[in-house]
Design goal:
single chain, phosphopantothenate--cysteine ligase activity, elongated, 14 helices, eight-stranded mixed beta sheet, Flavoprotein, 2 domains, binds cytidine-5'-monophosphate, Rossmann fold
């Protein structure tokens, strides 16, 4: 549960674009105001087809800003002031069209102009048909925006107004509020966040991140592997480096470029990964995001196994070292903060809580990899962060955003250690 105390007195500029989910934005305004947030709204022309300006005005108890060319709005409240006099801009619903205009830097209506003119953080809550969300154009636009620092909450899976099923539903108002509160809570840890100076709360700290799959050889040409893409681990390494940590990334084979600012050690097997991790010690932070193979083939063949008519060979497996458990129990060389991942199916939080105790790590980031979820290889992740004091559910977001938020949580931990 995210603490909403940081919301009181904050100024949110809410951009309501044209989608059926706009009706939820009315509830969002009401709930934000209940928490002491000052909400000012920009309604796009399409947005005004779904909710009336009068409802928005009544709920915000303020003018509804709609027209770039309105003399009244421009003289009393120019678009620059509108965007600057907010602590955060929230776009909900963020339609495919508005995301595309934001990504392209267009300024063809008041909403787009405000978003282009602003120097304030922006959070988007996408809402659209599943095919539109999954279209490479939208995905590219979203990735570009996230790279520029735009935050995202949702979209969620579910049945949509058009009767299709899949990701595309706007996050629920309370999830959006949690994301807003998390943003302000993190910003509170950033010294002089408005200043363009580098935000490096982890400078002086050393971090080790494992990422990707391992490849366990069967013979010189074959190996056992898994579907890990390495996206999550690489995103965490990059985010930690951005916050000033000296990062060693120990990675199994992936198709990803090396993240900027990290020393990358490329390995193939679990035993090589363990050796590289031990060589990187001492570190302050260890994040084990790799999907390490639990087993390797005992007695690997030096020669390619042949189909010689004698039937398939039988492979005997032996257990790999557990890198997370080894680092968690490394005695005086144990990193101050050890974080593991748990890819589970079913009762994710219960299994992950048990895993945290079993492995001896401090936090576990748990995600659901049941069939039907796209965590493995996909761009998004829905995680629960389990610490000694309980589990926190994070809304679905891009793996880059999970990495950024985890890095901020790590930085906050070192400022005020939490269990
Ligand atoms: O036991 P399980 O594989 O589910 O645990 C997952 C966590 O343990 C991940 O953080 C993973 O990186 C780590 N792990 C490891 N070495 C292993 C197996 C898992 O570091 N051999």
């Amino acid at each position: 549960m995210v603490d909403h105390a940081s919301l009181s007195g904050k100024r949110v500029l809410l951009v309501i674009a044209g989608g059926i989910a706009a009706y939820k934005s009315l509830d969002l305004i009401r709930r934000l105001r209940e928490r002491g947030v000052r909400v000012r709204a920009v309604l796009t022309e399409a947005g005004a087809r779904f909710v009336t300006p009068l409802s928005v005005q009544a709920l915000t108890e303020d003018t509804v800003y709609r027209d770039l060319w309105s003399l009244t709005d421009e003289s009393e409240m120019g678009h620059i002031r509108l965007s600057r006099e907010a602590d955060l801009i929230v776009v909900a619903p963020a339609t495919a069209n508005l995301l595309a205009r934001m990504a392209a830097g267009m300024a063809d209506d008041l909403a787009a102009t405000v978003l282009l003119a602003t120097d304030k953080p922006v959070l988007v809550a996408p809402a659209m048909n599943v095919r539109m969300w999954e279209h490479p154009a939208t995905q590219d636009n979203m990735t570009r925006l996230e790279r520029r620092g735009v935050r995202r909450v949702g979209p969620n899976d579910g049945v949509m107004a058009c009767n299709e099923f899949g990701p595309g539903r706007m996050a629920e108002p309370m999830e959006i509020i949690d994301a807003i509160a998390a943003h302000f809570a993190e910003a509170a840890h950033k010294p002089q966040a408005d200043k363009p100076q580098a935000h490096t709360p982890l400078s002086g700290k050393r971090a080790l991140v494992t990422s990707g799959p391992t490849h366990e050889p069967i013979d010189p040409v074959r190996y056992i592997a898994n579907r890990s893409s390495g996206k999550q681990g690489h995103a965490i390494a990059e985010a930690l480096a951005r916050l000033g940590a000296a990062v060693t990334l120990v990675s199994g084979p992936t198709r990803l470029p090396d993240p900027p600012g990290c020393a990358v050690v490329a390995i193939e097997t679990a035993r090589e990964m363990l050796a590289a991790c031990e060589a990187a010690l001492p570190v302050d932070i260890a994040v084990c995001a790799a999907a390490v193979a639990d087993w390797r083939v005992a007695g690997t063949s030096d020669r390619k196994l042949k189909k010689d008519g004698g039937g398939p060979p039988s492979l005997s497996l032996t257990e790999n070292p557990d890198i997370l458990a080894t680092l968690s129990q490394a005695g005086p060389r144990r990193p101050a903060l050890v974080i593991g991942f748990a890819a589970e199916t079913g009762d994710v939080v219960a299994y992950a809580t048990a895993k945290r105790a079993r492995k001896g790590c401090d936090w576990i980031v748990a995600n659901d990899v049941s069939l039907g979820t796209t965590t493995f290889g996909g761009a998004d992740n829905t995680v629960h962060v389990i610490r000694a004091d309980g589990a926190e559910a994070w809304p679905t977001m891009g793996k880059d955003a999970v990495g950024a938020r985890l890095a901020e949580a790590i930085a906050a931990h070192f400022q005020t250690p939490t269990p």
